[in-house]
């Protein structure tokens, strides 16, 4: 019997696209960028991941999607709608850092303790090209 689970291909550890510096997005409304975003939404939802960067699906542009929700791997993750961030940058709001176990879609089957700041401010463009800001704490940060 065949599995009904869809196979999603992600760039894997060692792929050159993951080492290349992603390019800033100049034209948020371009068909190419909007197609990358749609593909990211689809692949992230099929993978059950909580975040995805465009280079992980072989597009070297500065786009990430954060889609926190409780799961088997992250049972205490808060529920939030998927959020597209284009050309994101962050500012540390608290020097306090936390260490927690994380996985990565580009390194399947491996989890590691990762140190993250507890509170950050993220500046980014939304899918329509408007400047946005997000104050993120704990798991989302």
Task: Itemize the secondary structure elements and their pairings.
Layout (H helix, E strand, L loop, with lengths): L30 H17 L3 E3 L9 E4 L16 E22 L2 E19 L5 E7 L4
Antiparallel strand pairs: 1-2, 2-3, 3-4, 4-5
Concise overview:
It contains 1 helix and 5 strands, in the order αβββββ. It has one helix at residues 31-47, and strands at 51-53, 63-66, 83-104, 107-125, 131-137.
3D architecture notes:
The chain starts with 30 loop residues before the first helix and ends with a strand. The protein has 141 residues and is mainly β. The protein contains one helix and five strands; from the N terminus they run H-E-E-E-E-E. A five-stranded antiparallel sheet has the order 1-2-3-4-5. It has one helix spanning 31-47, and strands at residues 51-53, 63-66, 83-104, 107-125, 131-137. Strand 3 and strand 4 (107-125) form a beta hairpin. The model has no long low-confidence stretch (mean pLDDT 89). The protein is 12% helix and 39% strand. It is globular and about 40 Å long.
Mean pLDDT equals 89
Number of strands: 5
- Given the structure, what is the number of helices? 1
Low-confidence stretches: none
Beta-sheet strand percentage? Answer: 35-45%
In terms of structural class, how would the helical and strand content be classed? mainly beta
Order of helices and strands: HEEEEE
What characteristic shape results from the CA principal axes? globular
Please bin the fraction of helical residues: 10-25%
Rg result? 15 Å
Describe the strand arrangement of the main beta sheet, using strand numbers. 1-2-3-4-5
Please outline the major beta sheet: 5 strands, antiparallel
First-to-last CA distance? 41 Å
């Amino acid at each position: 019997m065949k599995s009904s689970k869809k196979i999603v291909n992600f760039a894997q550890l060692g792929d050159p696209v993951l080492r290349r510096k992603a390019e800033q997005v100049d034209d948020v409304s371009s068909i190419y960028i909007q197609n990358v975003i749609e593909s990211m939404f689809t692949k992230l939802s099929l993978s059950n991941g909580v975040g995805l960067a465009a280079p992980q699906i072989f597009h070297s542009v500065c786009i990430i999607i954060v889609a926190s929700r409780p799961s088997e791997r992250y049972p205490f993750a808060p529920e939030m709608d998927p959020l597209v961030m284009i050309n994101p940058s962050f500012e540390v709001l608290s020097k306090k850092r936390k260490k927690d176990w994380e996985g990565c879609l580009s390194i399947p089957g491996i989890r590691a303790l990762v140190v993250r700041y507890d509170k950050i401010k993220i500046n980014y463009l939304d899918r329509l090209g408007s400047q946005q800001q997000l104050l993120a704490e704990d798991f989302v940060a």
